[in-house]
Amino acid sequence: MQTKYDEYMERELPYRMTLEELFEQSNNGEYFNTYDVLAYIRERGEKFTCLCPASTPSDMCGVSPLGMMVSGRSEKVPCRIYIDKNKDYYNPLFEDTITGGVNHFSSTYKIQMTPIEFDGCIEKFYFSDFVSMINDGRIILQEIEF
Fold this sequence. Notes:
Blueprint: E1 2-6, E2 11-16, H1 19-25, H2 34-44, E3 49-52, E4 60-64, E5 67-70, E6 77-81, E7 98-99, E8 102-103, E9 110-115, E10 123-126, H3 127-136, E11 140-141
Antiparallel strand pairs: 1-2, 3-6, 3-11, 4-5, 6-9, 7-8, 9-10
């Protein structure tokens, strides 16, 4: 595990860690915190994957003048992180957040996920909600090669 000093939080925090280290930090998968999950995502980078509730083509219920209508999310499908280069606040890999005039790498606002098999339906989650869903078992961290 790699740690780094966060000026805003005024303490040393996890910066990068493997899935095994994340599991150990979380008391053997009992409870994950946002700092550790963010450090794991930064370790994996654009290769971060999980099983996540997401919209897929089978969830499409028709076409309207506004485009496709989505009836809901599938139970869990293999997903990868989606990086929007124009929206840093949706990118947990972006590290130069300024809070209170100082750099703050240990916080992120939202995360976007897209199914690996169907790149197009993008799901957005507040990062704290995303971590809560991991803790509830609704999202499963899994290293999937794609």
